[in-house]
Amino acid sequence: MTPEEIKKLDAYFKSVFANPQLAVRARPKKTDSCEVYKGDEFLGVLYLDEDEGERSYNFSMAILDIDLDM
Fold first, then answer.
1. Per mean pLDDT, which range of 4-8, 56-60, 62-66 is the poorest?
2. Which neighbouring-strand residues pair with 51?
3. Residues contacting 42, CB < 8 A, separation 6+
4. Which residues, 6 or more positions from 33, have their beta carbon under 8 angstroms from its beta carbon?
5. DSSP letter string over 36-70?
6. What secondary structure letter does DSSP report for 2?
7. What are 3-38's pLDDT values in tens digits?
8. How many CB atoms lie within 10 A of CB 60?
9. C-beta pairs of 12-21 under 8 Å, 24+ apart in sequence
10. Which of 21, 49, 61, 65 is the most exposed place for a label (fewest CB within 10 A)?
């Protein structure tokens, strides 16, 4: 993903989830995905999908059962 795409995705996540603490960051040595954080807490990976010239993004987030006992 380009820095411009990551910037747009960062703004999108902040807007959609109404949370300025969310941040989309580039991954070291990876160009097909980036990471999503809330502050310093890692939330998941955002993958780029290209098919027939169209680009889309898939967000993958694992939720541990211990996190549900908040």
1. 62-66
2. 54
3. 35, 36
4. 1, 27, 45, 46, 47, 48
5. EEETTEEEEEEEEEEETTEEEEEEE----GGGG--
6. -
7. 999 999 999 999 999 999 999 999 989 999 999 999
8. 11
9. none
10. 65
